[in-house]
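Subject: Protein record for review, amino acid sequence with backbone structure tokens
Category: Structural biology, sequence-to-fold work with a learned token vocabulary.
Format: Residues in single-letter code; tokens as whole numbers, each standing for a residue.
Body of memo: The sequence and its backbone structure tokens, given next.
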Amino acid sequence: MAEHHFLLTAEWSGLRNGVGEIETSHLKTKISIPTEMDGPGVGTNPDEMLLGAAATCYIITLAAMLERSKLEKRELHMESEGIVDVTNGVFTYKKIIHRPTLILLPDASEKDRSLAEKLARKAESSCMITRALQGNVEISVEATIVSSSK
């Protein structure tokens, strides 16, 4: 069994509405509480970062599944939305919705489209981040699969 270790360093100035900075080997950014939660809104925040982790894991997993299935694509892009509920001052990350758009080649068959839809659903449950969030945050996929016209 191999383990992979990822390290992050964090610095924080001030109190609740302070501004901090995080750094990993490939990411360095300022962090704070978002303006939607009465914070300064500087840099990114935990809500965006959780959404980013789930979205990048999903799209990379989907791309790998397409490759293994030898299903060629013209384009793959996605929009993801995170929904945070605030009840009695308690913030709860309720749901993440991934909305991938997969554009297949012009000669894609109905079988290819069906496989693409299946893989779009399967990638969500195969993603490591989705599995880590399972039971805490609802994650859904609203995929659009089309064949390119050129």
Observations:
- The mean pLDDT is 95.
